[in-house]
Amino acid sequence: MASWASQLGQKIASPEFRQYLMSTHFWGPVANWGLPLAAIADFKKDPQLISGNMTAALSVYSVLFMRFAWMVQPRNYLLFACHATNEAAQLTQGYRYLQYHHFGGAKTAVEQDLKVPLEPKA
Question: Is the dihedral of CA 65, 66, 71, 74 positive or negative?
């Protein structure tokens, strides 16, 4: 255990690691994590608010940048993970959008809103 901790400490203290922390190879993906985090936070919101066009655009964007992150040398695994997470989130949002707008979700929601509770008889 001590050797593992000392190896980690040496890696963090190395000039290469500090150089990595000060590069766009690190800060670009860190800044990009706002996209999947926002999409994941939107899972609890009403599907009526989802934009189909924006969801499709972000899905294509993430696929393209996943390929870029994989092909760039050295491979940017942090960027790849960010866009893989965003792709999964956008596909989930896309499913919610289609379910609501094209497969009867809106009709079901309206029917549930119109139900009036029966008053108890005295």
Answer: positive
Q: Could you read off the pLDDT of 70-115 as tens digits, one per residue?
A: 999 989 999 999 999 999 999 999 999 999 988 877 666 666 665 6
pLDDT band of residue 122 (cuts 50, 70, 90) is low
Q: How far is CA 2 from CA 6, 7, 15, in A?
A: 6, 9, 22
Q: What is the rounded CA–CA span in Å between residue 36 and residue 90?
A: 8
| Distance (Å, whole) CA 4 – CA 2 | 5
- Distance CA(9)–CA(83), nearest Å, equals 29
